[in-house]
Amino acid sequence: MDWAIATFYKFVTLSEPAALRRELLELCQSWGLRGTILLASEGLNATVAGDRQNIDTLLTWLHNHPEIGPFSHQESITAAPPFERMKVKLKREIVTLGHPDVNPAKQEVGTYIEPQAWNQLITDPDVVLIDARNNFEVELGTFKGAVNPQTHAFRELPSYVDNHLDPAQHKKVAMFCTGGIRCEKATAYLLEQGFEQVYHLQGGILNYLKSVPTADSLWQGDCFVFDERVAVDHRLQPSEYDLCLGCGHPVGAAEKASPHYEAGISCPHCYAALTPAKRARLEARQRDR
Fold this sequence. Notes:
Blueprint (H helix, E strand, L loop, with lengths): L2 E9 L5 H14 L3 E7 L2 E8 L1 H12 L9 E6 L7 E5 L20 E3 L1 H8 L4 E5 L3 H6 E3 L13 H8 L7 E5 L4 H12 L4 E5 L2 H8 L7 E3 L1 E2 L6 E2 L9 E2 L6 E2 L1 H4 L19 H13 L1
Parallel strand pairs: 2-5, 6-10, 7-9, 9-10
Antiparallel strand pairs: 1-3, 1-4, 2-3, 8-11, 12-13, 14-15
């Protein structure tokens, strides 16, 4: 069968996330769904796959939940199952900025810009365009003219903002990420720090790729996604990347041609840190697959 993949999030106050976790896990398993749902008191963040009918059943259930209500989602189709099983996890934050006090459900976030208006915004010479994703994601693709903060985790972004951006100098700041959730928190943080004109891409990169024709696009490269597809192209189809099981870094043709690449063991990004003990663990895992 074809697998429908729904990616969604919502910042909303959940009074009993632990009870919701138990209920959601049971329901999703009964509907044959696979993927991950993160729950916290600040909301939910999910990527879930299944057949068309059961994905719609899940979305309808969440939209009708008294504390959650309607939200938008991004969707794509793949022939292979993108996840092995269903997981519902409790977290302190549904996306970890390291500042739990920054809560988009309770405070102002940046101005949403629809994909059709994004090109005009980011070609404004007064706009500083920040890619809010991690460095390995930016390496696969980004928007023309975007700044790469060189972060290895989202929690490093506030430090980049504090050290490289100035509300008095950078009057207009635009941010983007894969599906929009990181920018919700990042733009809220910028506004809290005194930045006045802060924008973010509605629905993230995935919504832009779905909405903007390739001929008009300012996107360059592929987009990393957090499932078995690894990365998608402008048509939202899986591109030619695998995931290094040694370090989790996406590897393309160039990395696979390296003498430091060994499927399931290492790649050029982690070969130097490969200890005999780690090699033994990875080799054992490969034998058990």
